[in-house]
Amino acid sequence: MTSPEIIRPKAKQRPGDRVFSASALISGSLILAILAAVAGFLMLQGIPGMFADPESVSIYTEGENFVEFVVPLIFGTLWAAALALVMALPLAIGIALFISHYAPRRLAQGLGYIIDLLAAVPSVVFGLWGANVLAGAIQPSFVWLEENLGWIPLFAGPVSGTGRTMLTAAIVLAVMILPIITAISREVFLQTPPLYEEAALALGATRWEMIRTVVLPFGRPGVIAGAMLGLGRALGETMAVAMVLSGSGVIVFDLIGSVNPLTIAANVALRFPEAYGINVNVLIATGLILFAITLVVNSIARYIVNRRKDFSGAN
């Protein structure tokens, strides 16, 4: 004899619940629709520029085609963003750890507010600071690097007289992405279960050993996510790079010389006002490539976070 089936009454939804559920569904769908619309626009307008006759494109140099035009821009974009991330990530983790586990409460609150406020500074302000203040102040350091580390290809020189080099642009980008990585890392570190920390300290670990064995492994997915968000901003930054860097279509690893590569976003910003006809399509095609690069970077970050989420409660 089978037991009678238990009928569970359905919970009654209030009007507010239905409105919230529908709003969340519409918002999520709207994001996907906007993303698809942007991708569609870039493809429709950019693909003709990829296959345009090089002789009809005035922004190309003599004998240049689309591939030769865009490859140095891709290199400059990735090179500048990678340098910025390498400089900003360790500093951001250190600041986040200081705020979350070392600083007194009042000092931590003030520092957290300053970091959040730094993220709200417009990029054009960073560009003005980098071009008019940082470049001149750091130029003597470039001379020292060439004299003492010139045997390294990164500092081979000759040194730029203005200081507006790839290294200067990377420092500006590092300052711009620092608040993003710091804020996310700080919040993730604060979510570490206190029982885990107390257990490590009870077993005789020092504060640094507790941070190294408990806090950092717990917050690793969040740090990776913050780093990828910062990298995404560095890849797409326009005005700051355009104002600091006097670049051209070259592939150069030298960080302190007067000849520097240019990023895709800065190139579009500098050339678009005077572009016409098929030249606009070529610039949009470079934007399509930047869109694809950003999408790939975020997909890789999501893959890394998903692989490690079973070992951490950060997600």
From TrEMBL:
The protein's name in its UniProt record: Phosphate transport system permease protein
Transmembrane segments: 20-44, 73-99, 111-131, 151-181, 238-256, 276-301
Secreted as UniProt keyword: no
Major location category of this protein: membrane
Subcellular location: Cell membrane
Keywords from the UniProt entry: Cell membrane, Membrane, Phosphate transport, Transmembrane, Transmembrane helix, Transport
Domain ABC transmembrane type-1: 74-301
GO CC terms of this entry: plasma membrane
Gene name in the database record: pstC
CDD domains: TM_PBP2 (cd06261)
InterPro entries: MetI-like (IPR000515), MetI-like_sf (IPR035906), Phosphate_PstC (IPR011864), Phosphate_Transport_Permease (IPR051124)
GO biological process: phosphate ion transport
Function: Part of the binding-protein-dependent transport system for phosphate; probably responsible for the translocation of the substrate across the membrane.
Molecular function as annotated in GO: phosphate transmembrane transporter activity
UniProt record similarity statement: Belongs to the binding-protein-dependent transport system permease family. CysTW subfamily.
PANTHER family according to UniProt: PHOSPHATE TRANSPORT SYSTEM PERMEASE PROTEIN PST (PTHR30425), PHOSPHATE TRANSPORT SYSTEM PERMEASE PROTEIN PSTC (PTHR30425:SF1)
Membrane topology term: Multi-pass membrane protein
Pfam families: BPD_transp_1
